[in-house]
């Protein structure tokens, strides 16, 4: 499908680049950004454009300039490799005297000839305020969030010979006739194909949406330039993405004049079978085209480019080329808003867990009032803790803030594994809240991510979703502590070093979740999930059995290896102990594999043993009480974590 970003939306790319300027409490709110544009269109369809963005106050201008000392960073979507236009001689710079940003650029193929008329895509939301055969003036008023509006006025000087100008409001297309003579002579067509080197399978639905993010998610951009002296007519273009798409419908252009150009974009409808890919896979993208010279002779050719399809869990945080990078943090995370595609609020696993949360919250109608919404959010956090969902150390990529990618878990994966990185846990928390009608943000900052819930009143509830502890011991921050921590993180946002991903809005725009395999109805039960409400309903008191004292103690000194099982979550892990017995006293060391280690001490009486271990883990320190029975070279029994009420069983065997 052919579509180019409209001229009036071109400016909007720059205006929104600072990312939600009115959101953070530390940033002054914008009222109106005024934009003036002047374009000169030639008879080849190319245009020289000059635009100026004037910010409402000096304070706003200084903030933006300090946050983005290189103005190219602001203009990245317009001038970079994702641009849906083909630009030449671009210059962007700050003008301190006028509190403004200035851009000059040549746009190739601004106007194209279809059905014997020339067409320019001005924009669906624009209004034509004046038109004659010499110039046309257009107005666009565009919201930039709750506290900002952009007003743009664009004047285009038309080439000599223009007549019969029209503006179609529903499509935003400005068209005209142009008097000219048929050109005959040498036929020469230059063809340049640019392709995205990698496609994220997780986002296969967005690549067919030419409206999303001003058309920047094209897969291929083909520039046809008439380098001869003869007219080229009936240019037809079609594309195919290997086995993952059919040949696209042909895009047809009536005329390319000498030194004129056509910029054609490919937005493929990709088969859902791409979601079955688990690792990177190579694929051939084919471009097929044909055209005629002034005598009616037909020429045709096919161009093939090889690209890489990433696995369904692989997310590329930035696809900027080396030439585009400026070393800023936002370079490394320019694709961050696309994380909204991992928020699977309609997935059965997410809906089932949300049902458990509602049960724990006492059936609170989360979207009805702030009180009930907070009750749901608290129950969600505490149910995650109760079932042993824990924070997983992120990859070095996130810690180093370098461009690249990492595996992102869908919420069902995090529920299954009972562990996730900060991004995974934020996506899980947001998904469950979205399922019950609560809108959410995901905030991405250097080295971290956390969710923010929008309460029914519009107030914000930030939650530090990494406050969860280890699966074995249940060490964690309280819900109130998690909210306090995230609130501080939210207040400390720095312009140029955060992305605010408005999940519902991004999904409405077309950042849709992929199709995932169907799961069994009892998937949560299979994964060991339990509700404290259900546990209390079926709990049967167990009478302790009297322990018969033994007249003689055994010597249990040695090295032990074994396992533990958390009774609450069903998680099984490994433990190592080194025990030294002196009389009836026991001393030694303990390692909970993958979580922490520490010292232990206790006593032995006959075949019974009890001791306490003080463990230091990456998420904090805690005490564990062990009570066991000696059977030959084995010790088995129960353990408890007094601070959290977590309990379980253990079995260790003497290895030397």
Envelope shape: elongated
Sheet with the most strands: spatial strand order: 28-29-30-31-32-33-34-35
- Spans where pLDDT lies below 50 across 5 or more residues: 1-30, 396-403, 547-553
Q: How far is the N terminus from the C terminus?
A: 71 Å
Helix fraction bin: 10-25%
Number of helices: 13
The total strand number stands at 35
Structural domain tally: 4
**Helix/strand/pairing category:** alpha+beta
Strand fraction:
35-45%
| Largest beta-sheet details | 8 strands, antiparallel, barrel
Features:
656 residues; Immunoglobulin-like; 39% strand; eight-stranded antiparallel beta barrel; alpha+beta; 35 strands; 4 domains; 13 helices; elongated; seven-stranded mixed β-sheet; disordered N terminus
């Amino acid at each position: 499908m052919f579509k180019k970003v409209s001229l009036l939306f071109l400016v909007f790319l720059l205006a929104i680049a600072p990312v939600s300027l009115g959101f953070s409490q530390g940033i002054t709110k914008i009222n109106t950004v005024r934009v003036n544009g002047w374009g000169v269109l030639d008879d080849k369809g190319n245009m020289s454009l000059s635009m100026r963005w004037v910010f409402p106050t000096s304070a706003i201008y200084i903030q933006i300039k300090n946050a983005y000392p290189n103005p190219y960073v602001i203009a990245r979507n317009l001038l970079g490799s994702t641009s849906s236009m083909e630009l030449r001689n671009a210059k962007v710079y700050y003008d301190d005297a006028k509190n403004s940003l200035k851009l000059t650029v040549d746009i190739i193929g601004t106007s194209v000839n279809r059905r014997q008329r020339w067409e320019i895509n001005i924009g669906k939301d624009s209004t034509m305020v004046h038109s004659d055969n010499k110039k046309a003036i257009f107005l666009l008023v565009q919201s930039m969030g709750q506290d900002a509006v952009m007003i743009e006025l664009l004047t285009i000087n038309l080439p000599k010979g223009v007549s019969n100008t029209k503006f179609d409001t529903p499509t935003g297309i400005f068209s005209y006739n142009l008097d000219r003579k048929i050109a005959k002579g040498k036929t020469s067509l230059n063809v340049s194909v640019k392709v995205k080197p990698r496609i994220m399978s997780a986002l296969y639905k967005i690549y067919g949406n030419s409206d999303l993010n001003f058309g920047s998610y094209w897969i291929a951009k083909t520039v046809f330039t008439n380098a001869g002296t003869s007219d080229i007519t009936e240019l037809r273009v079609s594309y195919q993405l290997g086995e993952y798409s059919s040949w696209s419908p042909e895009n047809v252009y009536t005329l390319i004049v000498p030194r004129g150009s056509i910029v054609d974009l490919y937005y493929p409808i990709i088969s859902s079978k791409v979601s079955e890919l688990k690792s990177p896979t190579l694929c051939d993208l084919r471009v097929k085209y044909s055209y005629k010279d002034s005598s009616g002779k037909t020429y045709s050719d096919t161009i093939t480019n090889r690209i890489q399809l990433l696995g369904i869990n692989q997310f590329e945080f930035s696809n900027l080329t080396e030439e585009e990078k400026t070393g800023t943090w936002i370079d490394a995370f320019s694709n961050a808003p696309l994380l909204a595609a991992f928020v699977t609020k309609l997935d059965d696993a997410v809906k089932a867990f949300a049902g458990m949360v509602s049960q724990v919250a006492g059936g609170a109608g989360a979207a009805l009032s702030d009180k009930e919404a907070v009750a749901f959010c608290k129950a969600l956090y505490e149910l995650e803790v109760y079932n042993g969902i824990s924070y997983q150390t992120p990859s070095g990529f996130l810690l180093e803030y370098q461009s690249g990618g990492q595996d992102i878990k869908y919420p069902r994966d995090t529920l299954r594994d009972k562990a996730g990185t900060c991004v995974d846990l934020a996506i899980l928390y947001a998904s469950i809240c979205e399922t019950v009608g609560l809108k959410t943000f995901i905030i991405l900052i250097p080295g971290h991510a956390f969710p923010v819930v929008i309460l029914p009143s519009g107030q914000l509830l930030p939650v530090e979703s990494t406050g969860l502890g280890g699966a074995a011991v249940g060490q964690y921050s309280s819900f109130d502590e998690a909210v306090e921590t995230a609130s501080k993180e939210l207040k400390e946002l720095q312009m140029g070093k955060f992305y605010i991903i408005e999940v519902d809005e991004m999904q409405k725009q077309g950042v849709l979740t992929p199709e995932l395999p169907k799961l069994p109805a009892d998937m949560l039960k299979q994964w060991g999930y339990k509700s404290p409400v259900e546990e209390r309903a079926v709990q049967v008191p167990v009478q302790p059995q009297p322990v018969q004292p033994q007249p003689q103690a055994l010597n249990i000194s040695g090295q032990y290896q074994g396992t533990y099982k958390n009774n609450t979550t069903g998680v099984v892990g490994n433990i190592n102990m080194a025990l030294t017995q002196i009389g009836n006293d026991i001393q030694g060391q303990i390692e909970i594999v993958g979580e922490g280690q520490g010292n232990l001490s206790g006593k032995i009486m006959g075949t019974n043993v009890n001791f306490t271990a003080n463990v230091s883990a990456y998420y904090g320190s805690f005490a564990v009480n062990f009570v066991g029975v000696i059977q030959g070279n084995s010790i088995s029994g129960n353990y408890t974590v007094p601070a959290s009420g977590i309990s379980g069983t253990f079995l260790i065997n003497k290895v030397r």
